[in-house]
UniProtKB/TrEMBL annotation:
It comes from Saccharopolyspora spinosa. The lineage of its organism: Bacteria, Bacillati, Actinomycetota, Actinomycetes, Pseudonocardiales. It comes from the Bacteria. Bifunctional enzyme that catalyzes the enolization of 2,3-diketo-5-methylthiopentyl-1-phosphate (DK-MTP-1-P) into the intermediate 2-hydroxy-3-keto-5-methylthiopentenyl-1-phosphate (HK-MTPenyl-1-P), which is then dephosphorylated to form the acireductone 1,2-dihydroxy-3-keto-5-methylthiopentene (DHK-MTPene). SUPFAM superfamilies: HAD-like. Keywords: Amino-acid biosynthesis, Hydrolase, Magnesium, Metal-binding, Methionine biosynthesis. This is Enolase-phosphatase E1.
Length: 239
């Protein structure tokens, strides 16, 4: 069944909405896992890396003398639990950016995604991304895809640093400010009902994305309209 929605801005989740969850949990996590320790040691002078490592130690209650091996053990544990912790996302994003630049990583989207995004953008809708993945990681992931370089499709990127946690209303209010849009002009697509609830609390329109075989395919989306493919979305552009 198709879902009709009017908007000026389309804000998109990545994992489970644009890409299969395995693209993140298998392809990207497996790429980052063996490289975390090497990256931390090779970039210890980079304030972004040093800040992320200090944050890991603080969050995990490690003493300051803790070495790279202990930090990596925490990061691996967070990946195993799929904890979307900001310092982990920062470090993953740096490693993935390097992997995409080397041509060692390629993003594969659900078949309906790229045609829909192109058509929405061509019809005058603004596209933005809100993911737990860092902005650097997001942009890199759009740079090398099975449909080419898609970075030009998106006008804005938001993450847990420049917006906040995805299950909190404040994050969506901050994004609306960043887009210069009213809440009613924005529609958010996500596979996670709790994220949609937070967007609704901020006054946004929402569409749940329940794709076959994905972890939230059978979730309770409550009153959110739901599609299983972007082919079933009819977007009217608010002028
Ligand atoms: C290249 S972006 C990787 C996305 C990521 O790390 C992640 O955890 C996905 O979270 P999302 O909020 O998009 O479900
Ligand atoms: Mg998701």
């Amino acid at each position: 069944m198709s879902v009709q929605v009017a908007a000026r801005w389309v804000v998109l989740d990545i994992e489970g909405t644009l890409t299969a969850t395995s693209q993140v949990h298998v392809v990207l996590y497996d790429y980052a896992r063996p490289r975390l320790g090497l990256w931390i040691d090779a970039h210890s002078d980079d304030p972004v890396v040093a800040g992320a490592v200090a944050q890991v130690k603080a969050d995990a209650g490690l003493g300051e003398p803790a070495g790279t091996a202990e930090v990596v053990a925490v990061l691996h544990g967070w990946m195993d639990a799929d904890r979307k912790a900001t310092p982990l996302k920062t470090l993953q994003g740096l490693i993935w950016s390097d992997g995409y630049a080397r041509g060692e990583l390629t993003t594969d989207y659900f078949a309906d995604v790229v045609p829909a995004l192109r058509s929405w953008r061509d019809r005058g809708l603004g596209l933005a991304v809100f993911s737990s993945g860092s902005v650097a990681g997001q942009i890199a992931s759009f740079s090398n895809t099975t449909s080419g370089d898609l970075r030009g499709l998106f006008a804005h990127h938001f993450d847990t640093v420049n917006a906040g946690p995805k299950r909190e209303r404040d994050s969506y209010e901050k994004i609306a400010d960043g887009l210069g849009a009213t809440a009613a002009e924005i529609v958010f697509f996500s596979d996670v009902p709790a994220e949609l609830d937070a967007a609704t609390a901020a006054g946004w329109r929402t569409v749940g994305v329940a794709r076959a075989g994905e972890p939230f395919a059978d979730a309770d989306f409550g009153t959110h309209p739901v599609v299983s493919t972007f082919d079933d979305v009819e977007l009217e552009v608010i002028a």
